[in-house]
Amino acid sequence: MPSRLSRPFQLLIAATCVASGGLLLAQDASAPVPASSGAIGDGSGSYEVGGIRVDVSAGNAEAARYAGWRLAQRKGWQMLAQRLGASVGSVSDGTLDSMVSGIIIEKEEIGPNRYIGRLGVLFSRARAGALLGVADQEQRSTSMLTIPIAYSGGAAIAFEQDNPWVQAWGRFRTGNSAIDYVRPSGTGSDSLLLNLGQTTRPGRAWWRTVLDQYGSNDVLVPIVRLSRQWPGGPIIGAFQARHGPDNHLITHFTLRVGNADALPLLLDEGVKRIDAAYQAELRSGGLQPDSSLAYVPPVNATPTPTPTPTETPTDLPVVPGTAPITIAPGDTATVTITVQVDTPGAAAVTATEASLRSLAGVRSAVTTSLALGGVSVMRVAFDADPALFRAELEAKGWTVSGSGTTVRIRRAGATDGTPG
Questions:
Q1: pTM for the complete prediction?
Q2: What's the rounded mean pLDDT across residues 395-401?
Q3: Which domains does the chain have, with CATH numbers?
Q4: What Å distances lie between residue 412 and 277, 329, 367, 416, CA to CA?
């Protein structure tokens, strides 16, 4: 079909194609929508129908574009109904307007009286599903903490600084995905907790702590290694989709673009293919959380029997190291004690929490302020007088300073120059 675009517009398109460097991806996609504040990405749950091609002529460019978008809505509605296995008759444009929540411009060419485009349409899941008579019974994964890792220039970056790979996951719309992605915003403690070191750590205790903080049950690690042929020239991206604390490889592939300007398009395509691989793994029965990530309440090896209350006075002095201290339930109200402790590593955090929980009268012991390599703060719920808590710690070999409900503990003989 002969082109009806104006001669100046044809020259502009030709110049654009020459400048593109022969990209191997859909380099004509529109500019990405910035990620919203808070958790990144669009998780609105809309039905998305893409790849709708339109070619419309009208009296002027604006009318042609408007008609093209109207036609895309009608085509998208039929494609959605077919995909969901529903049969519907014709629907008015007004009804479609009430269901469409957005138009995605994948590619468009605008002439004086002609509009050619490849578009996507977002339909409200609630309204479209009700009209089509289908319920959303799609299999969904458990909540997956997503840690994107990008290798560029020999360095691995996650949330330590803003980078194109994290931005690509922020642009990705999850409405049509069966994966429940938990995508951190990259602020606060994200850069400290979610990095390459965490993804290679096999210890389940610390993984449980991290996943619990982000309200997740499992972890996904999408990785890209970027290789630049020369400054501003072609870029090759080697992608990997990994799953779980043991970094199980789901799939890997390689994509290439002709110049540096097309890097966002390379990464967007990589995100789509990785998501497709995760969904395929879920449908095949994989992508199940590791059973070792489930929280197991600590259990004392030798539980202390509950003594029978007697007439023995309760104001007798306690001598550290003489005998195990037992606390009868109901003797006193539960008090909250703040404990400061040196934590050179994750193992120290876990060991200290376990030691505190093993003390008689301790209901719970949790870390409220984590400082690996420094002094962390833990909160302990204790069913007795804080003086008894101090005595139990000294009987266990801890050096205790401070008084009342705020104490500083160290292993006997350990010093760091920090005042108690």
A1: 0.50
A2: 87
A3: 140-296 (3.40.50), 299-411 (no CATH)
A4: 53, 30, 21, 12
